[in-house]
Each structure stands twice: as C-alpha cells, then as structure tokens.
Amino acid sequence: MAEDFQDDPIVTKSYTLHYLIASVLLIATLFWALWDEAYGQRPWKRYQEEFRTRYLALLKQIRSTSAKAEDQIKEDTEYKKLEEAAKAAESAVAGQAKEIQQKINELNEKIATVQSTFTDARAHVTADTYSAETSSGSSRDRKLKELEEYKSKQQFEVDLPEYRGKKLSFNELDDLYSDLKKQKAAQIAQLGEVTKPAKEAAAKRDQYIADHMTELSPEQIAGLQRKMGDAAMKDAPRFEPDIKQINVGPANIVDRCESCHVGTREPLALTIASMTPKGQKPDEYARAFVGHPKELLKTHDPEKFGCSPCHGGNGRATTSVEKAHGDYEHWLWPLYSQQNMQAGCQTCHAADMVLVNDSAAIINEGKDLFRQRGCNGCHRYEGYDREPEDLQAAQQQIKQLEQQQKDNLKDAAIYSKQGDNASDNAQANRLYGKAQALKIENSKIAGRIEQLDLQSRNLLHDMKKIGPNLKDIRAKLSKNWIPVWIHKPTDFRPTTKMPNFRLNDEQVKSISAYLWQSALTDALPQQKAGNAAHGKELFETRGCMACHSMGEGSDLQGGTFAANLTRVGEKANYDYLVRWIHNPRQRTRPYCPYEKKDIGPEDYAKKGLPYVFDEAHSRCPNDGHELQIQNMTVMPILRLSEDDARDIASYLISQKKKDTASYPDTSFMDDPKLKETGKTWIRHFGCAGC
C-alpha cells in the first residue's frame, strides 16, 4: 500500500507551473478583452481624439490670421461709418434704456417677493380644486364651499412697502401677481422698441464684417475651440468621444459614418493638406477628416438623406474600417471608390439627364455618352426613351379594354334574353338592370380607350430611335452601298454610333438581303436637279452644321450630335434626300402600332377612304386607333422651300470619294433564300433596338 501511495501523481507531481501559466494567460486575456472592448472594437475613439488634436492645431493657426483679417476690415471707411452710427444710436437711447431696465429690475424684485407666497397658495388651491372635482354629492358641495371661503379669506401677507400691515385674499394675491407680470412685459416691450434702432445699427455693422470676411471670424473660431474642449478656452466642456449617428426613420437608414469622418460638416473647408501635421505625409486620418463639399450639403442634408445612400458602405458598422466601408464578403454595397464616387448620384437621379452641380461633371459626361453613343438602343435604362415602353403598355391596355367591351356586350345580350323569359316583372327588371349597367360600363370603357389613344398619339410623336427607319431603305439608299456599310461601318464613317459586329460574308449578305426585300417599294416623286453652289451656302448658313459635320480627322468641322455627311453622295438617293431635307417627319407609309404593320393605299381603299395621313387624318382605317404618321427623328423641319431643299440635296449628293457603281455587285440581295437567314441574324444581334 505504501508503494501505491508513493506512485500517485496527485501526491508526487507538482502543478504549480501549470497553474501559473494558466493564471497568466487568464489575466492577459482579461486585460486584452477590456482593451478590445474599450478601444479595439471602437476605433472611432482614436479617430475622434486624433481629429481633435489636428483640428485644434489648425484652429489656433488660422485664428491669428482671422483676427488680422477682421482688423483690416475694421479699418475700412465704410465700417467706421457703421461703427460710429451704431455708437451714436446706442448713446442716444442709453439713458432711457437704463431707466426702463431699472424699472424691470424693480419689478423682478417685487415679482420674486410675491411669488414665494403666491406659489404656496396656488398649490393649496389647485389641490383643493382637484379634491372637490373628484368628489360627488354632498362631499363635493362641502369642499367647493370650503375652497371659496379659502380664496376669499384675508390671510396672505406680502413684504412690499405698499402692502405692509395688510392681508390679502387669494384672489387679490392672484390679481397682484398677474398685474406685476403684465407691467414687466410692457416694460420689456418698451425697452425693445427703444433699443431697436441701436440694435439694427449694430447688426448692420456686424453684417458688414460677416460679408467681407473670407473665412470664419475670431469669435466663430473660438466657439469651435470650445466645442472641441480646448483647455486654453474658458468654460470649455471636456471632450468626450461618442458615437455620432444619423437616423432617417422613413427610409430605415442608420448611419454612423461621422463617428470617424468627424470633419464632414465642419464650417471650415477641411482638406487633406490642412489636416496633415507639418512635416508629415498625408495618412488615413487626414483623408478621413476631409470636409464634405458645402454646395452639396445645402441640397442633401445628411439628417434627411444619410450618408450610405450616396456613398455606399455599411453605415451601421463601427468596429473596423473594412466593415464600415463594406469591404468584406457579406456586404453587397461597398463604399464607392474615389474614381466612381459620383455613381452614388444614380440612387436618386437615375432618371435625370443632367445634374446641375459642379460636383457631378463625371456622371453628367457618362449620361451624355450613354445617349450619344446610342447605348440605350439595346440597353434600356430609366429616363432614356421611355416612350416605347409606355406605348406598348397603352396598346396592351387598349386590347384588354376592347376585349372587356366585347365580353360586356355578350353578357348584356344574355341578361336581356333572360329578362325576356323571366317569370315575373321583378326578376325581369333586375336582369334588364344588369344589362343596362354593362352598357353604361362600356361607354366608360370607350372613354378610357379614347384617352389611351390620345396618349398613344403623343407618345408616337415623342418616340425617337437611335438609328434610322430601315423600311425606307429602297427609297433612301444605293443598293450597292448597303453591304459595304453593314460589313464595317467605321470604315465608311469613323465617327458613327453604329458598332462593328464582326460579321462574316454570309451574314453580311443575308442581312442585306433581308433589309432590301423587307423594305417598302413605294415610288418617290422624281425631283429636278438643284443649284449645288447655292445649296452649299444654305448648308453653311442655315444651322445644319450645328448638328452635322463635314470633313474627316483634323479637317472635321461642325457638330457631333448628328451624322457626318462627308460621303453622303455615295449612299443616298437624291429624290429621298430632297424629301427628307424639306420635311424629315414625312413617312412613306403610316404605321399602326395596334396591328403592328404599315398601312398602305390598299387598306384605305377597302374602307373607301382617300390615302391621306396627317394630323387631321391620324386614325387607322382598319381599327380606328391612332397611327404613327411621322418619322421618329430629332431633325427639325427647317421650313425650307422645295427649291432650297433641292439645292441642299444637290450639294450633299456631290459629297463623295467614288461613284456608287464602283461598289461590288449586289444581285444576291434579291435572293429570297437569304431573307429568312437575314431575319434570324437581325434578331440575334438586336438591330431593332436602334
């Protein structure tokens, strides 16, 4: 048994070292946990302490400069005049103001004397009044009687000369207290009227300094120093770092960004340079303390909009920079980088084409490029050409309403027939009433359809496309030129919006064949030749080059909004060009969005109507809905005469480098086998978007 006892590890082995190590680790963990709780998980404390140090250094630096600037302003002749006027106005009323102020002080003493007695009495009356009002029957009557006796009893003494040795009732005491308050109010009002000229003169003097100071005044800077807890300032509160939170309840936004970005709304224009200590390079603190552009804060109050809706990031996070900026895998909206900072404007201003602000230059350029390059032809985006979607929605509603009309007529006929066969008059009247209600509803539906038709008409006028109407391709373009353009548009016109689709020869042929065979075959009136020299003069003086350009490369002249017309003579048909210049809105055939087809003379002939479509004749002969009677173009009608239009067209048709006949043969475009293949490729590449 002795040997077993001696071999027991609990008895023979020491655990002192183990306990020591465990204790040290436990104590170290405790201190680390306390430090992490106080500072590690609250990095904003370090930011606020560092901001305070740097901001106070900056304020001390500029305060002397501000004082010198204010002294210089005070030397101005105009300021001295205002200062003299303020002193004169103040001295003119000083005696009267002193007398009034003395009366106010005397009244304050009297009010204080009466108030001590009146307060106790009023508390007693209030308590008794409540007790009486909450009682009932004879008890209530008795308490009310006692209350009235208390109010009328001469029992209150007031330590005023005119009331010594005299006792007052509560009602008299109440009247005395009220009268003293009224006298004081009258004296204060009189003092305000007397000192008003002096205050206005002083305000003009102070406003002169404010208007001519290009920076904060010394008094304002001193106020900022007190706010930051500067020990050198009297009555400065102790600076305590705290969470600075913005809570926008309706939008469910909680942002604590200003807990680190402390200088965001400071009145001084804080820059990285101004918040970098002398002799040091800009660091993370200097970048975090930069002030927000003031002109944006005027229209985007953080208390209403927060920070994260514009800048991104996780506005609630405060434990690390990475989490606050949303730079971790669990946050979907990280902080916008400096290069993309203006992307945050899209949160609210996606539908605005232009943002009127100097701080939005990049986003404005991007919006302009998105429109100019025709991106919205394929990529639909809010604010860009909503008319097609609105038109489609209107047409769908019209179809639904017309179907509802048909259903109502059918149901009305059924109800009428059931009414005819009803067993009694009551049942017949009920069924006839249902039929009549459906007919009335149909009249309301007809009115709604009329509204949608008018809406469609306006949308058809406003709707624009990025590219031209390709149904006029036979009338508008030279047949040989079409495949050359489709193969690589930038070879013919480097500044074109149309992209290069890298098409092979078979794709080019099939697409060209589809476009040629699908185009309208209506003949255009033949135009006589014009005066090209006069046309050149008109082209250069009627504003054409505000949108269009001539020349290529370094010789390019004119605007960039519309097409370059340098080689237009190689592609355009003269007769179409004359019509286009004279009236660019004129269509070859009207288009019916409801039937989704072009309406020709044969459609009008079926209804016995003349083939006329204009503002006065804009209804489809087949279904009565609004037609698209104008081309979707932004080119204005220049109110040119037909002769002037011919002259300009003659000038433009002469702009070419080679003759159209020199282009390769295009007889394949009449091959019907290629048409269906071309239709497939056009759908594949999304050509209809533009």
Description:
- The structure is a single chain.
- The protein is mainly alpha-helical and 690 residues long.
- Helices cover 56% and strands 4% of the residues.
- The protein has 26 helices and 9 strands.
- It has a 3-stranded antiparallel β-sheet with strand order 8-7-9. It has a two-stranded antiparallel ribbon with strand order 1-2.
- The longest helix is centred in the N-terminal third of the chain and has 57 residues.
- It is extended, with a radius of gyration of 44 Å.
- The N and C termini lie far apart (102 Å).
- The relative contact order is 0.06.
- The model has no long low-confidence stretch (mean pLDDT 86).
